[in-house]
What does this fold into?
Amino acid sequence: MALLTESQFWDEDRIKEYEVMQLRRMLQHCASQVPYYRRLFHRIGFDPALVRQVSDLTALPTLDKETVRLNLQDLLAENIPASKRVYYTTGGTMGKTLGFWGLREAGWRERAFMETQWMRVGFHRDRLRAMLKGKESLFGFC
It folds into this structure.
């Protein structure tokens, strides 16, 4: 949470610098560890190391729901063991739900973002609150 607290005071240039650094890091990971992106980057000649701004992403095709459904296994990072993955689904408000894999440990990151935002408006973790979220399991609704 220290980064979230500190970064709220960054100027626009610092935010953009951090954003591009993290984007390049993620794209390089995708190029080396995710079969779908490895093939895509090779096919279109995209080099993550050359990314200098967020708008460089316009060189990539949009990842739509159907592409995710058709390439679910190839969108998994090869260096992440199955035990560290968790299956998520969208709520399906636009039609059919979409399932995808995420990191099991990423929940703490989401929690940190949520708590930082709550603190900015006066809520604290020791206060009573309710969160309404939908979830679909691999085997149906739960």
About this structure: The chain has a mean pLDDT of 86. The helical segments are 2-7, 12-33, 35-44, 65-70, 107-120. The longest helix spans residues 12-33. The domain at 2-131 is CATH 3.40.50.12780 (Rossmann fold).
